[in-house]
Design brief:
alpha/beta, seven-stranded mixed β-sheet, single chain, elongated
């Protein structure tokens, strides 16, 4: 008894000493923490002072930025509140699952404590009973966790659907899709925010929501459990205080990740936009030999900016994560161990001094460990949530900016604002004030009211940039009075009707127009009583009938479905009947996404069985085709006219919509419109159309206008310059941005006007005149030199000649539908590891202007991977030390050695510091490796993409419509996933080998055999039951790409859609694609749930039971007697605890190895899409186009050439010109004519070596320049537009360059562009601010600058007035340029000496000599 008392006294003395020591250590730690906080506070105040100084230098910009941030933060809160409010049932279900999960986990912790106790006491029966209960609990827990994960993924998709649907409703309402891309460009790349930012935000927020729900439930439950059996709240309070202090520290040292991620998304969007722009204009760029080099530099510069910013972001994230991981994770784990073990040194949890008491202590400790770790983890998740959500704020801010823009009052319906009204409080200073001015309902401002006529009353029209186009227009267009609108390019002809359609705001005045008769439908665009046919034909992806009824839908309009004869007659009017009879010619470009088609053919059959025999009807109503790719410009314009004839409006606005058809066909269309009783408002430069109109409105381009009544020869006009006061003249010069050069423009405009109105009104033809009469009256001025006429078969006049040897140019449609194999993965990995030198050489060319840093780690990939492997090895070594530490802590508890325990905790803190550095470095190296691989793979792809016109062939021949998405989004995602696999492949193998050896040392052959038998069983079972996640992933990527691509296509054609009021129709088509994506994702959730359930059970839960079995075997086989000796008991428990950790680590590594199968299948799905691009590039490289170069540079020669279309999906190609032989010598210009679709532009593609010849010989000179049908303006200044594809560095040695360029601008009458924007303004989007005619003249100026020997002109002046067009051709002739002109205008014959007419698009052609008749 005395010895017992002495021992108790010694323990008390030691305990008091330990308590004092703990107090000193705690005081020192608090002091150090206080000093650290003080230092951080001083540093923060110093940083704030620097920021204030910077803000004072830019007060204006900072004030605007702060307003934007305030609006964005409010929008972020609104987004989150909206998502949470609409998902209350789902959140309630998640909360219920979280409660069940926590309760079951608590029960399992109790069972595992009992298993520890029975294993220590070697009670086999009790152990078996507890093990069976634990097995069932693990099975149920796996189901709950997998179901919880499934619900989180479903919640993510529901939130994305809700947010996307809400954005779509506002984005497509009020023509906001047009406003965002053409009027208010404050929000860049709106389609990226909808398609990229929304899913990322919803995914991150759904994960955070799940973590918060689980953490809150765990905190409430485990804090109550901890306080109940410890009989105190100090442990809970200690954890809360630690988490709060650590969270405050990390918040202070955290960089502004929201700003950095926002910039990252902006740079990503800029890079993807450049890729998308190249894909959209691939044909125009391909015609310029060096054009792709300019585009490649633009894309590469943006790629480099994006990669460099991402590299800086990764470095800052690495530094911050080391601090965050140490404070919240690793040192927090040491603090948690103190809380776990501390209660067992004193109080009622202290073990009794016998074997049963120690066994009970082990059981309590195991349960206590589960409680403390769960509580500490939950508090840590809640403490780190602000840093996680700060990254999501970048996405939320970008989404909020878009929401603010499309939800603003000025965006609703784009109401007309401004004007000199009685109740107007003040005039607007500029156009932007009118955009944001809040108009009350009582104000009598410029509004559009219902009327039987179109009326402009004192209307002033200006551009969104503030340039005044038309002043004080007074115009009344009554029904039956046809109006012709003329004027120079950029005068405001189309802009006048942008105001009428509600696309632009009215600066001042009033506009009245007829509105829809059905009051329930919003009056947007011009597609009802007033129908607008734009100069840029708009055809959407869909069936033929959907094109004709656009913007209506098949659900609302079924006339053509119910009356096939009406469809036939309508197409016959515009000579497009062959779209039905020869439909197979166009189905090769059928869109793979059937979500945009209205109904399947089987559904049609059920509705109307009597129509089963009419196969063409079914094709026209169900087959989805990308019509913009398969139809020529003239065919698209004729389809647009057929759309007009179908709708039969009261007013028809024809905005140069027949520039691609012949003059005779144009006149025929005017007659049809006149017979319909439709009032025609025509914008045109062709004098022949004056005869079909009653009045002519002429705009002079400087704000003035004049109206001529052709019946009574009366003229109204705006006030002349002499009647204007000096103030008005000054205002006009400021608004127009011109000087005395405007007088010259007015004089030239007046000459054009006088020349056009000389024609008398043409008498009406009888209504029964044949539609083809005009076509048959076409005559040629010259003698026939040569011809090649194909006789049509009597059986089928529309059959296409088959050319089998062209099949090798295209890829079978079924090539992408096979199973995903390992070949794609191996090819891409080989590309990353071994295809490096070429990419670096190509980059060296770009670095002449801009220094480019190597993004990947300096040195070889071996060094980078070695560093990553070293981190993995060090982490495995530290994991082994932690396992040993876990056993040692139990050893000290059993021996009640506090001093040894606290020394061990000091060692644990240093290990935590090392682990924080190693883990953060491992993450940094992995992300950096992904970034470097992305750079390398992108460079390798771009190298092939920019080579040998592959960028053109991939889009127009192989029909990879989403090639830009594959190069950008798919490459990024695949490289990230592949880099994440690298440590997941190295670490599990290393851990499995190391800890298996450790397990063998402790348990022998039995334990290790059981371990590996289970691994084989788990892998075999998981592989047998795993679904094809690779194919599901590939399909999901395809749906994502189609959804993004549809948004990009809408942005590119926003104006045409807005004119038609087609927002609702486009919303339906785009949202159908999103719903197809949602349906696939929600459908695959069940498949993924089954996989996740089995994977979770086999790799996470079931191994616990195996761990306890092996622990029981170890306890039974332990060779030392533990009955009485405490040290022996402590030693065995230490080894048991170490063994349990070793087995857990081994099973974790086995689970990661088993999970590699899932990762691989998902990687293979993305690899298949990228490898498909490589395959298409390899086919393009293998394609050799045979041609000869004329060294003398004096002729173009085609000898027995067959011009054919390389259309994918057909058994044979379409022959456009067969056995064509013609020679064009220098000075002998050639005119190329023929009906639409006959192959005129295709011949131009052959001359540019974009299409191959299946037979014959092509000889072309080096100096061959092309001006395309679709004007292409690059990104850059006005000077760069003219010298394209040359760069400024290429022309640095040229003297007097600007003077030469100014002279050329004078020739094309565009000097006012220089006066507006100067030579060096790079921020002007010329493709949007210039009219089509101005763009065409600027492209002609480009051709004159290069002054080639031969200039190929593909209907590139059809939007230019006749006099300007003649001057352009005369100037080209004076320069000595030999022209090859594709045109429908007979007035250009005098500038050519020979004519090639392609007759029917079947191979027939005729060659005429024009010299004799012209002379």
């Amino acid at each position: 008894e005395e010895r017992e008392r002495e021992r108790e006294r010694e323990r008390e003395v030691m305990g008091m000493g330990v308590v004092r020591t703990r107090r000193k250590v705690l005081a020192g730690a608090l002091g150090c923490t206080a000093l650290g906080f003080a230092a951080l506070y001083v540093h923060q105040q110093h940083a704030l002072e620097k920021k204030k100084k910077k803000k004072n230098k830019r007060e204006d910009s900072s004030s605007k930025g702060s307003k934007g941030k305030t609006r964005s933060s409010k929008s972020s809160k609104k987004i989150l509140a909206l998502l949470l409010r609409g998902s209350v049932p789902s959140l309630a279900a998640l909360s219920a699952l979280a409660c069940a999960r926590t309760a079951l986990a608590n029960r399992l912790s109790t069972l595992q404590g009992g298993l520890f106790k029975t294993a220590f006491l070697r009670q086999k029966v009790a152990f078996a009973r507890l093990l069976g209960e634990n097995f069932v609990g693990c099975l149920i827990l796996s189901y709950i966790q997998s179901h919880f994960s499934k619900m989180i993924q479903g919640l993510e998709m529901e939130w994305r659907s809700s947010l996307t649907g809400g954005l779509h409703n506002k984005y497509f309402g009020g023509m906001n899709y047009y406003k965002c891309s053409h009027v208010d460009k404050s929000v860049a790349n709106p389609e990226q925010r909808i398609c990229e930012d929304v899913p990322k935000y919803c995914s991150g927020m759904a994960q955070c929501t799940g973590e918060v729900i689980c953490s809150l439930v765990d905190v409430l439950f485990y804090s109550q459990r901890l306080s109940s059996y410890t009989r105190t709240h100090r442990y809970t309070m200690a954890m809360v205080m630690y988490i709060f202090g650590a969270g405050t520290l990390t918040k202070v040292v955290s960089p502004n990740f929201a700003k950095m991620y926002k910039k990252k998304q902006f740079l990503e969007g800029s890079y993807r936009m450049a890729q998308s722009r190249l894909r959209s204009n691939s044909e125009s760029v391909a015609f310029y030999n060096e054009g792709i080099q300019v585009e490649a530099k633009t894309i590469e510069y943006r790629l480099i900016d994006m990669l460099q910013h991402n590299s800086k972001l990764l470095f800052k994230t690495w530094k911050f994560s080391m601090v965050q991981d140490f404070v919240l994770k690793y040192f927090g784990a040491t603090f948690a161990v103190i809380l776990i073990i501390g209660p067992f040194f004193e109080g009622h949890l202290r073990p009794k001094d016998n074997m049963v008491g120690r066994a009970q202590m082990l059981s309590n400790m195991r349960y206590h460990t589960g409680v403390v770790i769960s509580l500490f983890t939950a508090l840590g998740v809640l403490g780190s949530m602000p840093s996680k959500t700060s990254k999501l704020k970048a996405y939320a801010q970008r989404i909020g900016e878009l929401q603010d823009l499309i939800s603003s009052p000025s965006s609703s319906a784009l109401k007309l604002k401004g004007g000199e009204s009685k109740n107007a409080q003040k005039p607007f200073k500029d156009y932007k004030d009118a955009l944001t001015y809040d108009v009350s309902e009582k104000e009598e401002i410029g509004t559009m009211q219902k009327s039987n006529s179109i009326v402009f009353e004192n209307a002033t029209v200006s551009t969104p940039a503030g340039h005044v186009l038309i002043r004080d227009l007074n115009l009344v267009i009554e029904e039956g009075t046809n109006l012709l609108v003329t004027g120079p390019n950029g005068a405001g002809k189309s802009s006048l009707f942008r105001v009428l359609g509600g696309l632009w705001h009215l600066e001042s005045g009033h506009v009245y127009k007829p509105t829809r008769s059905d009051s329930g439908e919003k009056d947007e665009g011009l597609a009802s009583d007033i129908f607008y046919v734009p100069q840029k034909p708009y055809v959407s992806v869909g069936s033929l009938i959907e094109q004709l009824i656009y913007p209506s839908t098949l659900e609302k309009d079924r006339q053509l479905l119910d009356n096939p004869t009406m469809l036939t007659d309508l197409l016959e009017q515009v000579d497009l009947l062959y779209l039905l009879t020869d439909f197979g010619r166009y189905t090769s470009n059928a869109d793979d996404d059937t979500s945009v088609s209205s109904k399947t053919s089987s559904e049609r059959d059920v509705e109307d069985p009597s129509l089963k025999k009419d196969t063409s009807y079914f094709d026209a109503s169900t087959t989805v085709v990308n019509w913009s790719e398969v139809l020529s410009l003239g065919e698209q314009q004729r389809l647009g006219m057929a759309r007009l004839f179908y709708h039969k409006p009261r007013f028809a606005i024809l905005d140069e919509c027949t520039s691609g058809v012949t003059n005779d066909m144009e006149e025929r269309f005017c007659e049809i419109v006149e017979r319909m009783g439709c009032t025609c408002i025509t914008i045109s430069h062709r004098p022949a159309l004056v005869a079909f109109h009653d009045k002519v409105l002429h705009l002079d381009g400087e704000g003035g206008w004049s109206l001529r009544d052709l019946e009574h020869q009366k003229e109204d006009s705006s006030s002349s310059e002499d009647e204007k006061d000096e103030k008005d003249e000054k205002d006009e010069e400021e608004d127009a941005g011109v000087d005395d050069g405007s007088d010259y423009r007015k004089m030239a405009s007046a000459e054009v006007f006088e020349g056009m109105i000389k024609k008398k009104k043409k008498p009406k033809k009888p209504s029964n005149s044949k539609s083809h009469e005009a076509e048959q009256s076409t005559q040629h001025l010259g003698d026939l030199i040569d011809e090649h006429i194909l006789k049509q078969s009597s059986k089928s006049s529309n059959s296409l000649p088959s050319v089998p040897n062209m099949e090798k140019l295209v890829k079978s449609d079924e090539s992408g539908k096979g199973s995903v194999s390992a070949t794609s993965m191996l090819n891409l990995v080989g590309c990353l590891l071994f295809a490096r030198e070429k990419g670096e050489k190509r980059k060296g060319k770009v670095s002449k202007k801009k220094t480019m840093k190597r993004i990947v780690t300096q040195g070889s990939d071996a060094v980078h991977l070695s560093a990553l492997a070293a981190c993995v090895v060090l982490r495995t070594a530290i994991s082994d030390r932690i396992a040993n530490l876990n056993g040692q802590t139990v050893y000290y508890v059993i021996n009640q050695d506090r001093r040894g325990f606290y020394k061990l905790m000091l060692t644990s803190a240093f290990q935590g510091l090392s682990n924080a550095v190693i883990a953060s470095s491992l993450k940094y190296l992995t992300d950096h490796l992904a970034l470097g691989w992305r750079e390398r793979l992108t460079n390798h792809l771009l190298e092939k993409y920019f080579k040998k016109d592959s960028f053109y062939r991939s889009v127009h021949i192989q029909h990879l419509r989403d090639v830009d998405q594959r190069i950008t989004r798919d490459v990024e995602r695949w490289c990230d996933d592949l880099a994440a696999v690298v440590p997941c492949a190295i670490k599990p193998v290393l851990d499995a080998a190391w800890f298996s050896w450790r397990c063998y040392r402790l348990t022998g052959v039995k334990g290790i055999s059981l371990l590996y038998l289970y691994m084989v069983f788990g892998y075999t079972t998981l592989k047998a039951i795993s679904p094809d996640l690779g194919m599901a992933s590939k399909i999901e990527h395809d749906y994502e790409s189609a959804f993004r691509q549809s948004h990009i296509a809408l942005r590119e054609r926003a104006e045409s859609v807005a004119f038609f009021g087609g927002g609702y129709r486009e919303k339906q088509n785009i949202h159908k694609r999103f719903l197809s994506l949602k349906k696939h994702v929600m459908g695959s959730l069940s498949m993924r749930f089954n996989h996740d359930f089995y994977e979770n059970f086999l790799t996470n839960q079931l191994p616990h039971n195996v761990t306890w079995i092996i622990s029981m075997l170890f306890s039974i086989q332990y060779p030392i007697d533990i009955g009485t000796d405490v040290n022996n008991q402590a030693a065995m428990v230490k080894e048991m605890r170490y063994l349990a950790t070793v087995i857990t680590q081994t099973f974790t590594s086995f689970g990661d190895i088993l999970g590699l199968h899932k990762r691989y299948t998902e990687l293979a799905g993305g690899a298949a899409r990228i490898e498909e691009v490589f395959e298409q590039m390899r086919e393009s490289e293998s394609l050799v186009i045979d041609f000869e170069t004329d060294k003398s540079g004096t002729k173009i020669k085609l000898k027995h050439c067959d011009v054919e279309t390389p259309s994918a999906g057909l058994t044979g190609s379409s022959c456009l010109a067969q056995d064509l032989s013609i020679t064009v010598r220098k000075g002998s210009s050639l005119l190329i004519s023929g009906p639409n679709g006959s192959g005129k532009s295709s011949l131009m593609r052959v001359l540019a070596r974009l299409w191959p010849l299946s037979g014959g010989t092509l000889t072309v000179p080096r100096e061959l320049f092309f001006v395309t049908q679709k004007p292409y303006l690059t990104i850059g200044s006005l000077r760069e537009q003219i010298i394209y594809p040359k760069s400024l560095s290429d022309l640095a040695h040229v003297e007097g360059l600007d003077e030469k360029l100014y002279g050329l601008l004078s020739e094309v009458r565009l000097t006012y562009l220089l006066e507006r924007w100067g030579w060096d303004n790079p921020d002007i989007d010329f493709a949007n601010v210039l009219s089509l005619g101005e763009q065409q003249r600027l492209c002609m100026c480009r051709g004159f600058f290069h002054k080639p020997t031969f200039l190929v002109l593909d209907e590139c002046t059809n939007a230019v007035s006749v006099d300007v067009e003649e001057n352009l051709y005369q100037f080209a002739q004076d320069l000595g340029i030999t022209m090859l002109t594709i045109t429908q205008r007979s007035a250009l014959i005098e500038y050519h000496k020979q004519e090639l007419k392609l007759l029917d698009g079947r191979g027939s052609w005729q060659h005429y000599n024009l010299i004799e008749e012209l002379n």
